[in-house]
Amino acid sequence: MFIKRQLAIIVMMSMGFLALSGYFLNFSTLREFTDKDAPQWYMIIAGFAAFLGCLNLLQIHLQKVIRQQKNWQYSIFTLLGFLIMIVFGFIYKNVSSPWGAHLKDEASSFYWMYNYVYLPLGSTMFALLAFFVASASYRAFRIRNFEATLLLISGVLLMLGRVPIGSIIPWWVVLFMYISLTFAVLASKIKNKKIFFALFTLSIIIGLSLGIIFKWHLSTPLFLSIPSIQEWIMAVPATAGSRAIMIGIALGIVAQSFRIMTGRERSILGD
User: Fold this and answer.
1) Which string of DSSP letters, residue by residue, matches the chain?
2) Does residue 175 contact residue 251 with C-beta atoms inside 8 Å?
3) How far apart are the first and last CA of the chain?
4) Residue 93, CB half-sphere, CA atoms under 13 Å: how many?
5) How many angstroms separate the CA atoms of 55 and 95, rounded?
6) Tell me: the pLDDT tens digits for 118-150?
């Protein structure tokens, strides 16, 4: 029990604080350990972990085939893929290159399997994600409230701003989108439909009149140019949101690392 629980926690806490202190304490020996030795240890441990993961995956699929569980036929292809890549990677090489270097030799069977079987299958899996993204976008872009409306219009502007047709859309179409978004927000506050449509029509007339007076058809303002709007969305709101997400992820990593190094996170031990 000590070796399985307490010793693992002690080693984990010691290595965590030792690696972390190398970035804050100015000791040459400690810095050398953090920069050179620790990454090599990590690669060795990661290699053993990957090996154990492969063995576990093989065991799961073998049991699935033996017991003929649901969709066990697919496990046969997984096992065949394992076997073929192991044979061409560790047992048989059809080129004169030395072992290890033959994996990157373009004439080797292993290289051919990787480039013409594995990579196309990976690209196919990523291509299938487009349909799931389209389905999720359809559900998210339903106009139910202000947030959904704002998401819909932002998505449309981004898509139009990245294609050639976006640069030829006239300014009055963008102005109409602005007015529609504004009145979509005010729709729940203006109960009288006649007043609502009257204000909506008046806003369009005023906007078109301003465009004619200031000759926006000759020199379109940046806030009415879809490519310019798309660049602003990517540079300001999207960047701010991405940084906020990264800060949240960093805080989560710090909190989880602290729990692990102090021995409070026991899920990694199987608890």
Assistant:
1) -IIIIIHHHHHHHHHHHHHHHTTTS--HHHHHIIIIIHHHHHHHHHHHHHHHHHHHHHHHHHHHHHHT-TTHHHHHHHHHHHHHHHIIIII---SSSPTTGGGG-TTSHHHHHIIIIIHHHHHHHHHHHHHHHHHHHHHHT--SSHHHHHHHHHHHHHHHHTSGGGGGS-HHHHHHHHHHHHHHHHTTT---HHHHHHHHHHHHHHHHHHHHHTTTTTS--GGG-HHHHHHHHHHTHHHHHHHHHHHHHHHHHHHHHHHHHTT---GGGT-
2) no
3) 13
4) 17
5) 28
6) 899 888 888 888 788 777 777 766 666 667 777
Structure tokens at 244: 């906020």
Distances (CA, A) of 212 to 133, 167, 215, 217, 253: 41, 20, 5, 8, 55
Task: Return the domain boundaries, the chain.
Answer: 2-92, 141-235
Residue carrying the six token digits 């990976």: 122
Encode pLDDT of 176-225 as tens digits.
988 987 887 787 788 888 898 999 999 999 999 999 998 888 888 888 89
Q: Give the whole-angstrom CA distance, residue 189 versus residue 191.
A: 6
Phi, psi for 52 (deg, rounded to 5)? -65, -35
User: Hey, what's the torsion of the CAs at 72, 74, 78, 84, to 10 degrees?
Assistant: 110
Record the pTM: 0.58
pLDDT at 4 over 70: no
DSSP collapsed to 3 states, 65-85: HHHCCCCHHHHHHHHHHHHHH
